[in-house]
Amino acid sequence: MSVSNFIYTEWALILLLTALVIFIRTTVHLNKRVAADMLAVIALTLSLAIVDYIETALGEGQTYTVWRSILTAFKYSITPFIIAFCVRIVVGIKRNLYIFILAVVNFAVCVSSVFTHSVFWFSEKNTFGRGDLWFVPFAVCAVYIAVACFYMIRYSSRSASDYVAIGFLVVPTSLCLVLPFIWLDGFNRWFCTTIAICVFVFYVNILMQLTKKDPLTGLLNRQSYYFDLERFGFSVTAVVSIDLDGLKIKNDTEGHAAGDKFILTVAGCIMNAARAKQRVYRVGGDEFMIICWRTSETELETLVSNVRANTVQNECGCSIGSCMRGEGMTVEDMIRVSDQRMYAEKALHYGNRDA
Fold first, then answer.
1. Which end of the chain has less neighbouring CB within 10 Å, N or C?
2. Using DSSP, how many helices (H) and how many strands (E) does the chain show?
C-alpha cells in the first residue's frame, strides 16, 4: 500500500478527474455554483477512490482493525453525496440544502455501524458481514438516482440527445449499486472509474445544455430554434408566436432587473402550458416561439388558452399568434401567418402605438 501503487492502480481515474478539473476551471460560461458543485463531486470521487484503496488493502490482512470499519463507513457515505451534488446541479441553486438530508442521514447510520454493526461488521478474522440495515446506503443512492432522472427529464429539451445522455448517466450509476452483489471482487476495482466517467458525461451534458438553452430563462435558444426547424420542418403541424407586452416600459420605469423578472415569469407561464411535442424557444429579447409536432387544432387552442390564462394569473401581458399547417403550407408560411396574427393582436393591445 503506497502512493505510487495507488497512482499506478487508479491512473485512468486520476487522468480523467484532472482533465475534468481543467475543463471546469476554464469553462467561462459555467455558473459559479455549478462549477463549485462539480469540483466538489470530483473531490468526493477522488476521496472515494483513496478510501476504497486503503480499505481494500486493510482487507487483505488477517487481523481486523477498527480503521477498516471507519473507512467502510465513509465509503458507504461518499457515493450518496456525489449523486446528491449532481441532483443539486440539475435542480438549480435555489433549492439546495434539503437535497443533502438523505445523504446526511445515511452518513449517520453508516458511522454508527462502526459500533452497532447495523449496516456492516467485520469478524476478528477480518471477514466482512452485512447488518440488518445493509440496504440503507443502496436505497439512498437509488432515491437520488431517481430524483436526478426525474429532474433531468423535466428540464430537458425533450430531444433524443438529452434522453441518451440521461440514459448513459442513470444506467451505469444504477449498475454501480447492483454489480457489487454479483461481482464484488472484480467490480470494486472499476467502481470509482465508472463513477468518474458518469460525472464526465454529466459535465458534457451540462455544456450541451449551455449551447442549446437561453441563459436567462432556461428555454431553448434561437440557435436551437433554427436547428429544429431545419431538422423537423416536415413534421411540424403548428407554430405559436408570442411577444411580451410592456417590456420596454417596464425596463424604462423599473429597470432591467424588473424586466428580466418579467421575462422569466412569462417564460415560466409558457413552459407550464406546453405539453409533450410542444417545444418552447426564446428567439429574441421579448420574443418566444412554440413549435408543435403532431398537435391537433384542439390541442393548439388549448395551448394558446393555457398560455393566456397563466400570464393573466401572474399579472403579465403578451400578444399571441398561432397557425396550423394548411394544405401546401411550408413552415416559413406558418411562421409568417403566426407572426402576422401576433402583431395584429399587439397593435390592438397598444391601440396602434409603438410596442
1. N
2. 14, 6
